[in-house]
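Bug report (template v2)

What were you trying to do?
Predict the complex of my protein with iron/sulfur cluster.

What happened?
Run completed; filing so the output is reviewed.

Input:
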Amino acid sequence: MTTCACANCQFYDTHMGGAAKHKEKDTGLCRFNPPLPQTASANTRAAWPVVEKSDWCGHFAATVERMTSVAA
Ligand code: SF4
């Protein structure tokens, strides 16, 4: 049985790309929803939520396979 934690979720992404400020050892990005605006200003970029490996939420889905295939 898989432990319910972001680190075991198929939406957890360790690729921190533009989130350089959050390159903490035990964090990653949650890819369940699209990036969210951080302020009401139109001049700021949206960001993926940063979560800790031990976090979890009601959308947890055990990692089975990355959704990377493209329909032919
Ligand atoms: S916040 Fe929820 S959906 Fe996102 S990685 Fe964690 S368990 Fe998965």
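What did the reviewer find?
The mean pLDDT is 82. The chain has no helices and five strands.
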